[in-house]
Design a protein that fits this description.
The structure is a single chain. By secondary structure, this protein is mostly beta strands. The protein has 4 domains: 28 residues; 185 residues; 93 residues, Immunoglobulin-like, CATH 2.60.40.10; 72 residues, Immunoglobulins (Immunoglobulin-like). Helix content is 8%, strand content 44%. It contains 2 helices and 35 strands. The strands form 6 sheets. The chain has an 8-stranded parallel beta sheet, with no helix packed on it. A 7-stranded parallel beta sheet has the order 3-6-9-12-15-18-20, with no helix packed on it. The protein is elongated, with a radius of gyration of 33 Å. The N and C termini lie far apart (111 Å).
Amino acid sequence: MPVINAKMKCMMRILMVITIVMSLTGSLLAQTCITQSGNDGTWQSSSTWDVFPTQSILNSGTVYILHSITKNSPLKFMQGNGSMVLNGGSLTIGSSNNPKNLRFFQNTNCSIQIGSGDTLIVTSHVLMDANAWNNSITIDNGGVMIIWGNLNEINYNNLVVNGVLVVCGNLTISNLNFGNGDIYVAGTAIGNYVGPTLHSNFDDLVIDYPLINTSVPCAVVLPVELISFNARIINQTVELSWLTKSELNNDYFRLERSKDAVVWQKIVDVNGAGNSQQALEYMVIDENPYSAISYYRLKQFDFDGVFEFSNIISVSLNNTEQLSLYPNPSSKIISVVGCSSELEGLAVYSLLGKNMTSEVNVYIENEGLLQLDLNKLKSGVYFIKTKMSTRKIVKL
């Protein structure tokens, strides 16, 4: 029987400890973690998982997101062969008040897969280090990835977009990317794009994917695109018509009338189309216009109560009616409202009769509304003259 001396016993203990440590380390680095049924929650909560994951995706580790999860710290792929799969779930990294990055460190063969109906939101940047190679992000048809900052993909990493990728910052691609989905970029797009359609206009995103609009801070689209707003006199009544190119979340229009373009009163509310991508025309007859000049505007309301105003238009039943100026006196801008014939040949003169029109920037809002920028004029009294009238203004 061999004799085991004290030195051999010590070596055996060391080997046993090393074996145990390697075993534990291997299970840690190659762990598979799955979100538990019915447990939406935070990444940091142990009740979210069957096996509690580390804060990073380490070597050969796989995380399956089957529920709605938020992570209040950065997500890092530290070593090779780590993967994350969204399958019937969503993951939000950071928040608007606490934005966090998704980062691939010096590693290879790491991957993210976003399944149909799943969403990955990164509230800061997606970064790939200089020594990060052959990593991949795959967005399946029906999947969505939203990045509030930049996506910097370098060194032959792969991006496959069959669903929707939204980048609110800049997108830099060094390797060919594939798929037949849509990529929306608010900033600058640099690189080779093969397959996916690249968009810089977010109108289609908001219309086609209304459910993700609230998660995209850079997708700002006007609720109603107004093509025209007109008024004409018909037998002492006023026909008002407007044409929209598109409508989003449009509840109704309120048509308003005023004597002086300052105090307004409601004429009628007209239902909007809600959501529409085709041209729609509206018409209202005002049977009680003012005997002289009447000003009109539209007040458009969304379903959530938010509203916007159109430009002001005007008609005059008495063509001798003088111009309307507001605010007067003014330190900066004066609006001049009147019929188009009243606004012809508009010029600005000083109190001594000097023509000062070259010192005034004139902005034509529509055929019945001009805006005069008085910033270059010194404080004092001036006169606005047209072919039909002369009015005094005061620059403060």
